[in-house]
Amino acid sequence: MRIRDRLHSSDKSRRKVRRKYDEIKGLSITSLLDVLTIILVFLMKNVNMESTKLSAVQGIQYPSTITNDALLAKTGTTPIKVFTDKVLVGIESLSFGSPADLLQNAQKRSDISKYLELEAADIVKAGQETCLVVQADRYIPCDYITEIVRIATASGYTYIYFATLEDADWLKNYNVSSAQ
Amino acid sequence: MAYYKPSAMRQQKGQTTPQEPNLVPIMNLFLTIIPFMMMMVVVSQLALVALNFSQGEGGGGSGGGGGGNTKADKVEIHILGNGYAKANGFLGMEIREPGMDTKQIAAINKNYDYVALENAIKDIRARKANLIDITVLVHPDVLYGDLIRTIDLCKTNGFTQVHYTAPKVQYYY
To answer: What ipTM was reported for this prediction?
Structure first.
């Protein structure tokens, strides 16, 4: 039997049968597209255009706080960004000038006051609460902040928010001798 | 059954299997929109510290209502600046409370001692459990970061109604 098998296996005339492989199919994008559609819908639902007004701005070193007060519902917010060398007002980031102009330039103070009054009037007309968000560098003297708050309250803003970065451990990490 | 001339039959295209729609342009669009939207979602990492000026307090303050007893319990934290230090030889903070001695918290290496301030605020909280109002007076040359940290400590210790006042000061050397 073995000899017979050997004879069979050494038979060169026997036809070899190769196994057929399936054709390689192209990458199916449909499933990926499904996932992307779900993500897109989710993002569109969650994206809040109000938050773009409160985006962290490069060039400002925000102070850190433990507390984080939620922005009230139905508020129309007007951001004001106080850099060490310039002040930008409103959603359009209109250039106001330098922080020193807040105290020294009466004309510019009047201009910013008028602008904030118009903004506040628009917000009230839309049936919302007026809210000013101050985004200031932590090395700005409080004199400028006080002036901004004074102008804003005189222009009809009810709520003033100070933008910060949340850091629950800043006090634990605070070293008074090196003032980090 | 339709009849075609032999020449017309040659013009007919052979039937093919239905093609899948070309999804690549849609994918490109999505891959552009999604990172953009994700950038906007990440945006709101900023925290907020609120002050409410609806009560019309001079220089600012937060809402809440005035109980009849609030003036008697008015606690003030004065953040003194460098100008005050030059004129009076003391840099730091003062806590003024009716019926109590003024508590001074000296700055160390020209830095405000927030750990001592936290302890002082906790001490007030222990004595006046129901008090929620506190006033922060900030001198003009104090940095904004120091003001925010002081307000933050007040809020974390239960003084939810933080009033913000800036005194007009002049220093004579």
So the answer is: 0.71
Every domain of chain A and the residues it spans: 75-180
Quick one: CATH architecture of A75-180?
Answer: 2-Layer Sandwich (3.30)
List all residues of chain B from 62 to 81 with a beta carbon under 8 Å from chain A: none
**Would you call A135 an interface residue with chain B, using a CB distance cutoff of 8 Å?**
yes
Scanning B1-40 for CB atoms below 8 A from A yields 23-24, 26-27, 30-31, 33-34, 37-38, 40
User: Residue B44: what pLDDT?
Assistant: 52
Give whole-number Cα distances, A101 to A96, A112, A135, A158, in Å.
Answer: 8, 11, 17, 24
Specify if B142 maps to a domain: yes
B41 vs A: CB within 8 A: yes
Q: Is B111 helix (H, G, I), strand (E, B) or coil?
A: strand
Whole-structure pTM value = 0.70
Report the residue of B52, B112, B148 to disrupt the A interface, i.e. the one with the largest count of A CBs within 10 Å. Answer: B148
Q: Is A180 exposed, middle or buried (0-12, 13-18, 19+ CB in 10 A)?
A: exposed
Q: Which domain holds residue B145?
A: 76-165
Mean pLDDT (whole number) for B1-24: 68
B115: confidence class by pLDDT, cuts 50, 70, 90:
very high
Predicted confidence band at A52 (pLDDT cuts at 50, 70, 90)? low
Residue B103 belongs to a domain with what CATH number?
Answer: 3.30.420
